[in-house]
Amino acid sequence: MNRFVLQVFLFLAFIPLAILIGYGILVIAPIFCCFLAINSFKFNNYKEMYLWIAFGAISFFIALLMLGVI
Hints:
mainly alpha, elongated, 2 helices
């Protein structure tokens, strides 16, 4: 098989995998921020807790937007 054809095929096969990983990160990000906010609350670090809540809310709305819910 021609090397160029093989490289094009591998590049095209990588695109759906990259999209799948990107959507997975979008879905996991708000959950991860929630756990970080809970951990900050345990140590009475309220500034950091509110920061993680804000990041979680922003990533939640970005995930909804990217997944086509909004």
